[in-house]
């Protein structure tokens, strides 16, 4: 079963290069907000906002450790997003293949003219 | 090479259930704005806005045919979006597998305690 609101949040989260960068960085291991912000030159407040969006989508999990907030990947919803794209892409691929084959067989079609 | 602005637009386009619905519908074949709007109960103006977002992302191609605008799938950028998710997911998967194996081997780890 597809959870539309999960897909909404996951795709919206991925629609920003900074947030995609955070996910890539966390693929190397957990990091604090400060460690995520430092290489980007972004303020802690700005970085916190991006992390919050990823957290709301379930793509990132955060935990207070002493005075810092540790962030790590929570990848499960990404499966759902990929499954959605993959499923429809295969479906469309088959239909487009079928259309190609059909057009190639039509007299005067693009397939025969070219 | 990953085109960040393409990924931004594709993911933002997919972050809405109406727009995902349009892509699914167009998987069955081309449709006019009116045909897309009708089953949703949405106004033509509202549907046009969604189609424009998909068009800007390259996910939909439209063409003026007589007095109507015909819409069809333009699937290429979806490959890029899936490639991005797929690549990082595999990368993270391997790292998480490695972490699991590592934790299982640690004395007193969750892997051994459970």
From TrEMBL, chains A, B:
Domain HTH arsR-type: 1-93
InterPro entries the record matches: ArsR-like_HTH, HTH_ArsR_DNA-bd_dom, WH-like_DNA-bd_sf, WH_DNA-bd_sf
SUPFAM superfamilies: Winged helix' DNA-binding domain
Gene Ontology molecular-function annotations: DNA-binding transcription factor activity
Pfam families: HTH_20
SMART domains associated with the record: HTH_ARSR (SM00418)
Protein name per Swiss-Prot or TrEMBL: Transcriptional regulator, ArsR family
């Amino acid at each position: 079963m597809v959870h539309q609101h999960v897909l909404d949040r996951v795709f919206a989260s991925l629609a920003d290069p900074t947030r995609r960068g955070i996910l890539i960085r966390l693929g190397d291991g957990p990091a604090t907000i400060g460690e995520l912000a430092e290489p980007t030159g972004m303020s802690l407040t700005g970085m916190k906002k991006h992390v919050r969006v990823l957290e709301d989508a379930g793509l990132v999990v955060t935990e207070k450790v002493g005075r810092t907030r540790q962030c790590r990947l929570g990848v499960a919803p990404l499966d759902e997003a990929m499954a959605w794209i993959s499923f429809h892409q295969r479906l469309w691929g088959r239909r487009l293949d079928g259309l190609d084959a059909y057009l190639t067989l039509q007299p005067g079609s693009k397939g025969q003219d070219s």
